[in-house]
């Protein structure tokens, strides 16, 4: 018999952290986890659009989604209730941040310089990557208070910060590779 997907343990408005602590579902830890999950979903959609266009960076997006699982593990392990075994299992290193920086530099070198504010556009792949970037910024805003309160690893917030930069550069790169025009901000006439 297949296991059930539902547990009914959250029906009363509480959920458990990885440390076993029960907190209200509106707790900022679960807000951050939800935003991170939404980010992974948005990146998955962007990856599907990009795959249809044959972009070679799709494997990087898959790797990012895997890293977001690790981000979630760290967030689900509040340092205030984590034992050393929990911390060891869910620690988040600086290595993925450095990898994102390498990717950003590599794509940036191939792009024309920015001369105006760019609106989310440039074809489906690019627009989906821009949307992912906006979701990433929200996830980062949810994570920063946890880091400031000492509940999450500072590298998690740094990773999300760099990830939004990567998604911005990648959106521009996708538009360029597909020959799609990036729409720029034009100040409306008064």
Automatic annotation (TrEMBL):
Q: Record's NCBIfam families?
A: PduO_Nterm (TIGR00636)
Pfam families xrefs: Cob_adeno_trans
**Underlying gene:** Mmab
Which terms are listed as keywords in the entry? ATP-binding, Nucleotide-binding, Transferase
What InterPro entries does the entry give?
CblAdoTrfase-like, CblAdoTrfase-like_sf, PduO-typ
Which stretches of sequence are listed as region Disordered?
1-22
One example of a Gene Ontology biological process annotation: cobalamin metabolic process
Protein known as? Corrinoid adenosyltransferase MMAB
**Biological role stated in the UniProt entry:** Converts cob(I)alamin to adenosylcobalamin (adenosylcob(III)alamin), a coenzyme for methylmalonyl-CoA mutase, therefore participates in the final step of the vitamin B12 conversion. Generates adenosylcobalamin (AdoCbl) and directly delivers the cofactor to MUT in a transfer that is stimulated by ATP-binding to MMAB and gated by MMAA.
Listed under catalytic activity are: cob(I)alamin-[corrinoid adenosyltransferase] + ATP = apo-[corrinoid adenosyltransferase] + adenosylcob(III)alamin + triphosphate
Q: Per the UniProt entry, what species is this protein from, by scientific name?
A: Toxostoma redivivum
Query: Which family, according to the similarity comment?
Result: Belongs to the Cob(I)alamin adenosyltransferase family.
Residue stretches making up the Cobalamin adenosyltransferase-like domain: 5-174
């Amino acid at each position: 018999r297949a296991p059930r997907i539902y547990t009914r343990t959250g029906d009363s408005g509480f959920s458990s952290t990885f440390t076993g602590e029960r907190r209200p579902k509106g707790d900022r830890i679960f807000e951050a986890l939800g935003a991170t999950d939404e980010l992974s979903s948005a990146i998955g959609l962007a990856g599907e659009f990009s795959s249809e266009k044959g972009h070679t960076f799709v494997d990087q997006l898959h790797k990012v989604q895997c890293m977001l699982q690790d981000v979630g593990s760290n967030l689900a392990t509040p340092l205030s209730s984590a034992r050393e075994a929990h911390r060891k299992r869910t620690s988040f290193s600086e290595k993925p941040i450095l990898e994102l920086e390498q990717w950003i530099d590599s794509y940036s070198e191939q792009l024309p310089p920015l001369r105006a504010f760019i609106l989310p556009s440039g074809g489906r792949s690019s627009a989906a990557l821009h949307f992912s970037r906006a979701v990433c910024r929200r996830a980062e805003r949810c994570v920063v208070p946890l880091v400031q309160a000492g509940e999450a690893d500072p590298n998690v917030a740094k990773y999300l910060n760099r990830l939004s930069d990567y998604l911005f550069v990648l959106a521009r790169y996708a538009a360029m590779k597909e020959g799609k025009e990036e729409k720029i901000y034009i100040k409306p006439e008064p």
